[in-house]
Amino acid sequence: MQFYSLPNLIRRGLRGHRDWTPAWRKAQLRPSYDVIIVGAGGHGLATAYYLAKLHGVTNVAVLERGWLGGGNIGRNTAIVRSNYLWDASAHIYEFSLKLWESLSQELNYNVMFSQRGLLNIAHSEQELHDLARRVGANRLNGIDAELLSTEEISKRVPVLNTSPDTRYPVLGGTLQRRGGVARHDAVAWGYARAADALGVDIVENCEVTGIRTANGRVTALETTRGEIRAGTVGLVVAGNATVLASMAGIRLPILSHPLQALVTEPLKPVFDPVVMSAAVHVYVHQTDRGELVLGAGIDAPVSYDLNGNFRIIEHVLAAVCELFPIFSRVRMLRQWAGTVDVCPDASPIISGTPIKGLFMNCGWGTGGFKATPGSGWVFAHTLAHQEPHPLNEPFSLDRFTSGALIDEHGAAAVAH
Amino acid sequence: MLLIPCPWCGPREDDEFTFGGEADFPRPAEPEALTDEQWADYLFMRDNRRGRHREQWCHTAGCRRWFIVERDTVTNEILGAGTYGGSP
Ligand SMILES: Cc1cc2nc3c(=O)[nH]c(=O)nc-3n(C[C@H](O)[C@H](O)[C@H](O)COP(=O)(O)OP(=O)(O)OC[C@H]3O[C@@H](n4cnc5c(N)ncnc54)[C@H](O)[C@@H]3O)c2cc1C
Ligand SMILES: [Zn+2]
């Protein structure tokens, strides 16, 4: 792997930048691997990296039906935070947040993690109480969280309409200073490059079409490029989790929905933190280039369609213009959608399955980007040891039978 | 946006309707006789099909009746609509 550094940049720059090599190989598919990961999204690539780095498992393939980073990892609004309510979630998201804080150094790849702070605002007394409760829960878990008054919010985000006579009055809010955003594509590319350097084969244009089992064990995958054998398989395919699980006869509690986002033309910098309002379903931040990145909600019907319903966008933009009157004449550059895998309790599934050697990491729904490093870390442990890491033990598939759900709708379902 | 064909009122815009999830899994007649696995299957597990999907809709802002739609979940094409017990 060519090390990225200032001296190297200068040295190669003086030679006309002609001797840079590709960040990762076009790997040749081999007939058999120790571990196959299906899905070259953020979570799949992070899993491959930590398998090789922490567990010495390097005979690994990551199979991707499209192109690396073409799924939700390249479609999200890049918000990172850890202010979840319940202990199980708080622990795994905070573990991830700590990994984010040194990820660029770890991968020798600038993921542009920017801890600009994350503001959740409340428009009703009830919401304010719920947020205050969450601040308490966060602090008990050692997560930074503060309650802010309307005046403090107004000082921090002057472009937010905090006057009392608006449609959505801001009654207060919470701040997680360590929250922020990262460059989502760079996360996929950085993990891919680092995993590749440790020997992992990343194979694009290779769709998994079937799962072979014998005596209750996974033995091989059928793909559009032939059969590939492996004793351990991790399915990390986000919105297509049910499709893959059904190939092995496994039923999941997951529904797939389109989730949309938009980006505007660039403006001069007008506000620092990420601003989220669960009640009116707005989450917005300004990129380093000056564009506003706006997230919308999911379409109600189950769908794998990648357009999304226009009505959802109208709803979000109406609320954005109420909250930020200054944005009312900004033009939108692009809109897109991803297929998100939503669990009934708004928490992920990182788990073994009734089939030995077959593991799933899915159900992250609308909010899995922030968990990419931690999810990869614990899933790599799960695959290497064939049993869960303590951090993902509560997120098993069994919880839907035992009833030990991790209800994060307050902290996760609407917001991201 | 979808144009949902209500069997009673004809095709209308989707904001008149409420999506009611997958069709064809009736509430078990004797829930107390089920194992935890069977109950979890009824409560939580879904086909979430990629492709042809039979689903329930309610014409909330119209006739307020429930009915069944068959839709392709990749293209959003509506393949048919009908009443309970009727077709499709
Ligand atoms: C619009 C939008 C906004 C979001 N905003 C945020 C946010 O602000 N913060 C946050 O934390 N999260 C957010 N999320 C959620 C987050 O993006 C996802 O939870 C996360 O990216 C999912 O994990 P992943 O990166 O591994 O998924 P993906 O990148 O989707 O990876 C899955 C891969 O599997 C591949 N695949 C599927 N089927 C097959 C097959 N049969 N064979 C081989 N490969 C297959 C797919 O092509 C895909 O590349 C958002 C999502 C969307 C869509
Ligand atoms: Zn009707």
Summarize the topology.
The complex is a heterodimer of chains A (416) and B (88).
Chain A: H1 6-14, E1 32-38, H2 42-55, E2 60-63, E3 79-80, H3 87-100, H4 103-107, E4 118-122, H5 125-140, E5 146-148, H6 150-156, E6 172-176, E7 180-181, H7 184-197, E8 201-203, E9 208-214, E10 217-223, E11 226-235, H8 241-247, E12 255-264, E13 274-277, E14 282-286, E15 292-298, H9 310-323, E16 332-342, E17 349-352, E18 358-362, H10 372-385, H11 399-402, H12 409-413
Parallel strand pairs in A: 1-2, 1-11, 2-8, 4-13, 11-18
Antiparallel strand pairs in A: 3-7, 4-6, 5-6, 9-10, 10-11, 12-15, 12-16, 13-14, 14-15, 17-18
Helix pairs in contact in A: 2-7, 2-10, 3-10
Chain B: E1 3-6, E2 10-13, E3 18-22, H1 36-43, E4 52-58, E5 66-72, E6 78-82
Antiparallel strand pairs in B: 1-2, 3-4, 4-5, 5-6
Bound molecules: flavin-adenine dinucleotide and zinc ion.
Commentary on this structure:
The complex is a heterodimer of chains A (416) and B (88). Chain A has 416 residues and is α/β, with parallel strands linked by helices. Helix content of chain A is 30%, strand content 24%. In chain A, the strands form 3 sheets. In chain A, strands 1, 2, 8, 9, 10, 11, 17 and 18 form an 8-stranded mixed sheet that branches. Chain A has an 8-stranded mixed sheet with strand order 5-6-4-13-14-15-12-16. In chain A, a hairpin with a 5-residue loop joins strand 14 and strand 15 (292-298). The longest helix of chain A has 16 residues, at 125-140. The model of chain A has no long low-confidence stretch (mean pLDDT 96). Chain B has 88 residues and is mainly β. Chain B contains 1 helix and 6 strands; from the N terminus they run E-E-E-H-E-E-E. A 4-stranded antiparallel sheet of chain B has the order 3-4-5-6, with no helix packed on it. The relative contact order of chain B is 0.26. The interface between A and B is medium-sized, with 23 and 27 residues. Flavin-adenine dinucleotide binds at residues 38-44, 63-66, 70-73, 75-79, 207-208, 236-238, 240, 244, 259-261, 295, 338, 340, 364, 366-370, 416 of chain A. Zinc ion is lined by residues 6, 8-9, 59, 62-63, 65 of chain B.
